[in-house]
Design goal:
It contains 14 helices and twelve strands. The protein is α/β, with parallel strands linked by helices. The protein folds into two domains: 192 residues, Alpha-Beta Complex (Spore Coat Polysaccharide Biosynthesis Protein SpsA, Chain A), CATH 3.90.550.10; 119 residues, no CATH class. The longest helix is centred in the last third of the chain and has 22 residues. It starts with 27 loop residues before the first strand and ends in a 6-residue tail after the last helix.
């Protein structure tokens, strides 16, 4: 329920929900937010749906004008706060998340980008999985699906065919991250860093392929701006980066020799692999066949963008991010294991 007497949060700090309010889901929903314009009606409707169900914390790093507008429109429904300056780091999303984790009243925390849209079934199931696991990795799908979202769905399907995808939402037991002192906020691939940190600290993770959570598609401008940055993420996984860097030389060699059949065979294999991912765990319900059909285009794009990402690494020391440069996509697993190693019984 919401408390009608709760005053709107101030532009500086925000107000906490009354401690006596007991919502249906005993967990915290954490929404890290930074937008250039006031969030649209869709996010407001989602927050109004969400707030009565569980404690909701919005950590908002938008400018003062936008922050004040958010406080006016839905800030009284949630705990709406600025990121804590003491937890500042290069990655703004991590700054917001670390702030929210410190404020969460519950150990079970759902972290979700502002384009993620849970429903009752997926939200309850995600939280319930935290009873037996320390990290839950749901599966996002785009709805609606403009052409560029279908293009990016190719990446999702290939990930599903091999293992699991990397969504815009995770659920975590906050106690694990409190033991580790949080996770590194000076990396680019922040979700991978969070997952690696939990696992290196002995946490148990699960990635149910049938735990579908809707995600709104990005604008084409945002999609275009993410191409090289997402390719740069793979530097954190050298074997995968090497495979993606090989796409362009192999395709070039095939064309130079006039082996067009090799290209057709390769594209066909990619479509087939993506279709395996689409069919796993009932994925045909949420993933369009266009995602499989466009998977070779995504592979070709990644082949080009991987070389651009490597060029950024060599010439600029990292990839542009928020007016600066981030060098590390994520901390190596071995380093995290050494950092959080505990004596064996």
């Amino acid at each position: 329920m919401t408390n009608a007497s709760q005053a709107p949060p101030s532009a500086r700090g925000g107000a906490a929900a009354p401690s006596h309010v007991r919502r249906a889901i005993q967990a915290t929903y954490l929404l890290p937010l930074k937008v250039g314009q006031p969030a649209g009606a869709d996010l407001g409707e989602y927050i109004r749906w969400l707030a009565p169900r569980m404690e909701t914390i919005v950590v908002d790093n938008s400018d003062d004008r936008v922050f004040a507008e958010h406080a006016r429109t839905w800030g009284s429904l949630v705990r709406h706060v600025r990121p804590d300056p003491a937890r500042a780091c290069a990655n703004g999303k991590v700054h917001n998340v670390l702030t929210g984790l410190a404020l969460a009243s519950h150990d079970r925390v759902v972290i979700a980008d502002d384009d993620v849209r849970y429903d009752d079934e997926s939200l309850v199931r995600t939280v319930a999985l935290l009873d037996d696991h320390d990290l839950v990795r749901p599966q996002n799908y785009f709805d609606p699906v403009p052409w560029h979202a279908a293009w990016d769905t190719g990446r999702t399907l290939l990930n599903r065919a091999i293992a699991a995808d990397y969504p815009g939402t995770l659920a975590v037991r906050a106690q694990v991250l409190r033991r580790t002192g949080g996770y590194d906020g000076n990396v680019l691939f922040e979700n991978l860093e969070l997952m690696r940190t939990v696992e290196a600290a002995g946490g148990r993770s699960v990635a149910p392929l049938d735990l579908y959570v809707r995600r709104l598609p990005p604008t084409f401008r945002h999609f275009r701006g993410q191409r090289v940055r997402q390719a740069y993420d793979e530097i954190a996984r050298p074997a995968r980066m090497a495979a993606e860097l090989s796409v362009l030389p192999l395709a070039g060699a095939a064309m130079a020799r006039g082996r067009w059949g090799w290209l057709v065979a390769g594209a066909t294999a990619v479509v087939g692999t993506a279709e395996i991912g689409r069919r796993r765990a009932g994925g045909t319900r949420v993933f369009p066949v266009a995602g499989s059909a466009m998977a070779p285009l995504w592979v070709a794009e990644r082949g080009v963008c991987s070389w651009l990402a490597l060029t950024y690494r060599i010439l600029r020391g990292g990839v542009p991010y928020a007016g600066g440069v981030l060098r590390r996509p994520a901390t190596p697993v071995k380093e995290l294991r050494r950092r959080f190693a505990t004596p064996q019984n």
